[in-house]
Amino acid sequence: GAIITTYINPILLGLKISGVPLSMLWVAAVAEAYLEPFGLNHLDAYMAGSQREIDAIKQKNPQFNDAKFQVPQPGRAKTIIMNSIIMAPPNFEATADTVVNLQISPDYSGSPFYPNGGTVNYHSVQRFGGRDLDNYLVG
Fold first, then answer.
1. Which of 41, 77, 84, 136 could form a disulfide with 35 if both were Cys (CB 3.0 to 4.6 A apart)?
2. CA separation for the pair 70, 126 (Å, rounded)
3. Are the C-beta atoms of residues 69 and 47 closer than 8 Å to each other?
4. Can you spell out the DSSP letters for 41-68?
């Protein structure tokens, strides 16, 4: 419980003085204040549910052979759910009505809810394409 009460302003100031770019300042501060005490502050690490999943990922994707992965620790909750939001795709209008909850965990990434009980309509500025991602690529 004490970690959540960490005063983040001195951390932000120290990171800024140490040269952390402004675009990464909040991410680095949250990592140091709230994730580091649990060993989860590696900004260059991927997430997987188990060592077996890491082995399967590396077998299918040899470019990840030297990559760092985080897995749930023994004796702790088996799943961590990180919450974020999706505002709108690039070049689409973002409004308060188009914000969607995004949940990320080792075994699921997506939005399990309809926003405000209904669907979202984005108004296109230009066309774009996309594809599905494995969970370890989210983030």
1. 41
2. 37
3. yes
4. --TTEEE-SSHHHHHHHHHH-GGGTT-E
